[in-house]
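mind reviewing this stuff:

——
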Amino acid sequence: MLKKIFENSDLELSTAEAYSQRIRQHIARIAEEDQVPRIAVGPWRLAEWVVANRSTWSRSTWRQYKAAACWVLLNEREAVWPLVRVEVADSAHAYLICESQRGAKRKAGGTSSAKMKGVSDADLITLFNYLTSSRSKSARIIAVLLMATTAAGLRPSEWLLAEPVEPEAGFQFKLVVRNAKA
């Protein structure tokens, strides 16, 4: 269904899929909050919920969630709400599209922005020394992974799909990695 809709859209397929998935997650959350089945969460409830939560999101999150909701209300309404009349989804879209980002947070203050993004050299040495002196079977493997992760700048989950490839001239080693955030 999404590929058929995509043919008439100027969005990339991956963006459309991400929008669809995000709105389905929102609908599940609304259903849980309202203690109703997902099918009971209609287009208007989605639009109202997105607007009501604007003050809890950063401006960029608000723009993304609004864009996702608008896209689904216009392009996937029959798939998401098969029993709802088109006019209902259109009116929910019209309501949502008129909402500005006023009221959204200027800067995010959530968990991600508060997390430490690296490890100090002193902490890294302490961890490495602890792991290499441990009698645990997996401690040395963890120590090697810790050092390789620090040296390469990869996230732990990115190692699963990392592939060594033939290096280009002038290089000793080349590793192809898929970004875990992409």
